[in-house]
Amino acid sequence: MTTDVPDRPQRAGHPPDTLTDQVLDAVESLVSLWWAAASAAPPRLPARQLLALQTVRRLPELNLTALAEHLGIGLPTASRLCGRLEAAGLLQRTVQPHNRREVQLVITSQGRRLLADVTEHRSQRLTGVLAAMTPGERASLKQGLHAFHRARARVRPQPPRLG
Fold first, then answer.
1. Which whole number is the average pLDDT over 117-141?
2. What DSSP string describes 67-131?
C-alpha cells in the first residue's frame, strides 16, 4: 500500500512506504492541523507559549523551575516566556508566602478562555477531517488508535543516548 505523499525522501533504516512512513506522514499532517487550528484562536501565541500555558493548566502545582524542567528549557527562558504570558494577561506569577523564592504560576480567566478557544478550533478541524472519512475508515482509525495506545503502554521509553 502506498501513501498519497509525492516525492517523500526515503527515511534511513527501512524501505519506502512502510507503516512507519505512513504514521510519520499522518502525524505530520495532524501536527500541521493542530497548530493551524491553534493559530486561529486570538491572540496568536508562539507554540512554546501555548505549550507552557497548557502545561500550567494540566499541572497547576508547577512552579517556574518545574515548568522550565518540564518544557526542557532554561530557567531564564521560562521566566521570559512567563513574563510575556503575564503581559498578555494570560498567566499570573505570584510569590509563595512560605517560600519567597518560589514563583507559583496561575492561569488567568483570559488564559482559560484562550485555551478553551484553541481546544474548540482544534475540535472543529478534527471533526471536519473525521467527517470526510467513511464510517469504516473512522472505525479502523479508532481501532488503530486503541492498539497504538496499548502498545505504547507496553514499550518502555529508551534512555537518551549521550555522546
1. 95
2. HHHHHT--HHHHHHHHHHHHHTTSEEEEEETTEEEEEEEEE-HHHHHHHHHHHHHHHHHHHHHHH
